């Protein structure tokens, strides 16, 4: 019956295999160097594939850069008229970034609690569906309360949807990755049911079209840049920016945030310190779901106005939030910057891209590839960071020992 | 001390709670079965009686300790009774449209990619590496399978190329999970995104705006002599794709390898307690590498079935459309066991096949029906009816000491 003490250590307690420790190291290392290197590496690898298939990667990336409207920034004095292409492209990039900031935060927040929320897509869709329902109903309301109700209801619905995963994690220990994946697909099929032919939220004017109803004019979020007819940039952009601040405040300036981070670093130590870990799981998931639901509301009320079954199938902006959060190191500033990068990439490789420069059907897939490579490299560089910090610790200890003798 | 003179002794195998529970589950299916073609009982009494029997069997098993299977029997009885009753109320003509014999063939068609994916995922996770990248590996198999069949001129080349592509992506996942000790879920998701991009990019690059040329060599069907012209069995199982049969054979095969051979014991040891496995001289890294690569190859086979199997030699961007995730769900629902995973794959395949026919009744309900696998899996991981428990060291990177 005698065992050596090391044989008793279950694998999850080995520090080197502990992901949270590595994540902690990454958080502490902070800095811009690693994420920037990750992104550069991913773009280089993408460029290699572009070159290997007989295209000029520089022209392609230049085309994407212009398609995203980033060249607008260098044409001083700035021409804000969105009749001109550069300004219009930039406004569309910012519109995409609005959504990505929020779906990114939806991944980043639970990550700080040690939870991996893959369910951003489902929470986003739930928010979008509820916002659509509110927008189509209550048509007699004035704009401000109507929009606020839509946003609030969508955020709440998203929170409830993600809360299911948090609740299951807290009560039964069901792994949040699996339950959020399942909830994603339930939301995707549920959305197709609701908007599809004969579905409860299908439009009333064209029974043949599997599309939702169009939201009332009073539920539109006003546009501040560009034309409201041509998908201008709406005030939702500022809501997203404000949410970045809220995220930072909750995480760094409230008891809840402190507890969430404590659970993220080490749930056992947090529980020992008197934190109700289960409740933190539910709260972290609910807050994350609220972010994603908000993203759905801002999209629906800001520029989509209606959604079809095919849109439900094609939508993947919630999944993109994973790459945004990971590249942004799960911090507010990082997620914000990553959202602008991916917003530009997403718009610049699809509708913004000049087809004569680079084929958008190729470029759209290039986005998926770069997204995959970034996530892949982020997974690896946490390890590199860990080694780096471990080596530094060893060096420090040696120095201390040398000083002692 | 079994007394063979008393056949009704408590320990007789047929009266054990487990056996009764399994019988109850089958009765539950029979309750539904009795009301649909080819039997088509028109009296609601038939399914109700059989269903009540199933529920009783389940209750009996639950009270005698066989909880998971017992609740399964009760659920099966209730569902069978309900569906059976609804079928007796429905018009006979509609029933013959929905439950034609080829429904069984379709169940196999839809279950096959899930079977391959679920078995692949199971082998990887049994060795201790979480594989949420099944979707991506399947997608790689789908595209490179049809590419290989097109350029190589034969479906066999396609299958080989598909397995190579799936294995290559699995190798990335393995290297990241095992050597770099990256978060396996992050690396798996990266595989999914990457596969989406790579297959889409190369599809556009290699085939441009035209599609895959018609007449690509596809995986042949196997006509079973004697059965293929029989009345009900013929359309049901008489003429199925070769890969469907391969998938069915892989289920007992993987069970045998995983649970009855030393190799399987090693794989499971690495997934349950890698340190102990290492202590007795098992090369944990090698076992995990092999398991993940095999997993990618199996998932790719499922993907190849989509493109050059029942897809008839075609490819569309994001062709797998989440089937890798249903396979993952089937594996979890099947409790990381081959027959469990296969049963779940058949159930999910059945729900998909049924969803394609339910528009006879209501198209919107048919859509909603597609969410059923995910709801069931959510219930299973939550542990309402018997808990799905992963291997102990699943997802834990191993560090040699």
Number of separate domains of chain B: 2
CATH topology of the largest domain in chain B: ABC transporter involved in vitamin B12 uptake, BtuC
What is the 3D form of chain B? globular
- Basic shape of chain A: globular
Strand coverage percent of chain B: under 5%
Q: What is the CATH topology assignment of chain A?
A: ABC transporter involved in vitamin B12 uptake, BtuC
How many runs of DSSP E, i.e. beta strands of chain B?
2
Rg of chain B over CA atoms, rounded to whole Å, is 22 Å
Low-pLDDT runs of 5+ residues of chain A are 1-17
Oligomer: heterodimer
**Beta-strand percentage range of chain A:** under 5%
Counted beta strands of chain A: 2
Largest sheet of chain A: 2 strands, antiparallel
The order of strands across the largest sheet of chain A is 1-2
Distance between the termini of chain B: 48 Å
Q: What is the percent of helical residues of chain A?
A: 55-70%
CATH class term of chain A: Mainly Alpha
Order of helices and strands of chain A: HHHHHHHEEHHHHHHHH
Biggest beta sheet summary of chain B? 2 strands, antiparallel
Characterise this structure.
The complex is a heterodimer of chains A (405) and B (401). Chain A is mostly helical. Helix content of chain A is 69%, strand content 1%. Chain A is built from 15 helices and 2 strands. Chain B is mostly helical and 401 residues long. Chain B is 69% helix and 1% strand. In chain B, helix 5 (102-126) packs parallel to helix 10 (242-260) and helix 6 runs parallel beside helix 8 (184-207). The longest helix of chain B is centred in the C-terminal third of the chain and has 26 residues, at 284-309. At the A-B interface, helix 7, helix 13 and helix 15 of A face helix 8, helix 12, helix 14, helix 16 and helix 17 of B.
